[in-house]
Amino acid sequence: MPLHPELLEIVRCPKCLGNVTERKTKSGSGLVCDACRLVYAIVNEIPNFLVDEARPSE
Ligand SMILES: [Zn+2]
Known about the structure:
The chain has one helix at about 5-10, and strands at about 20-25, 30-35, 40-45, 45, 55. By secondary structure, it is mainly β.
């Protein structure tokens, strides 16, 4: 189930405060920051915006 579009408009990368985009990853959906090249996992439709737990995007 995709994230609510309005939520995607207000969420920002916690590291650089840039826009994130929803993208499919190997382990499910994630929010990707292209500036930081980080993927924030979406768990139970809730984005995990802990920078320490973000993974590098490919
Ligand atoms: Zn960022």
